[in-house]
Amino acid sequence: MEVKENMSVLDLIEEMGKSGVLGAGRVSKATQLFADSIKDEDTSIFLSVAGPMVPGGLRKIIFDLINDGFVDVLITSGANITHDLVESFGGGHYRGISADDEELQKHGMGRIGDVYTKSHDFEVFEEKISEILSKIAEKKKIISIREFLFEIGNMIEDENSILKIAAEKGVPIYAPGIIDSMLGLQLWMFTQDKELHLDAVGDMHELSDIVFDAKKVTAVLLGGGLPKHYALASNLLKGGVDAAIQVTMDRSETGSLSGAPLEEAKSWAKAKAGSNLVTVIGDVTIIFPMMVAGAREIIAR
Question: Secretion signal: which residues (predicted)?
Answer without folding.
Answer: none
